[in-house]
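Sanity check

After download, print the first record. It should look like this:
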Amino acid sequence: MTDNSSDNKQQDRGGLWASLRRPSMKYSLGGLLVVGVVLGVVFWGGFNTALEATNTEKFCISCHEMETNVYQEYKKTIHYTNRTGVRATCPDCHVPKDWTHKMIRKVQASKEVWGKLTGTIDTREKFEAKRLQLARNEWKRMKASDSRECRNCHSLESMNTETQKQRARKQHEMARDDNMTCIDCHKGIAHQKPEGMTEEDEG
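Expected structure tokens:
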């Protein structure tokens, strides 16, 4: 009984595999190819649309953890409002523009979704308790990428240090000479610095 049942299952699997390998008698190869291309375009379009929807400031602050904490701080900075009217939004600083690094960052962000679901920073007190750790994670990421997202808008090579204040000029010239990166000095540029920072954190 068992042997026959096992033989029948193997025959069914063999028949299924054979039918998958056999050319279709009902549809032309060209028709199947067109359907495959259309489905591929629809899938890619849907995927890319969803990806870009999660890559907006509106999406970032849809979580109250971000809207009531770091977003309020950011609104008081030069990246939010300035004399030239150029604004850097959350994804400009926190999401890479090139596809490969963007995908890596999106996978890393899945931990943030888990944090949202488990309520790890759902109150101001919890957020402040984890703030230094969260900041260190972001500083480490930015340091490892040579402040890639900062460099989408800023670069030492295109700075005219002669028009800068003396302190800024000196710091930028030193940064250029020592191969430093933006985040080495600009840790409080868009958000408040966390309490408990060490000398190593300060750079």
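If your output differs, re-run the checksum step. Summary of this record's structure: Residues 55-193 form one domain.
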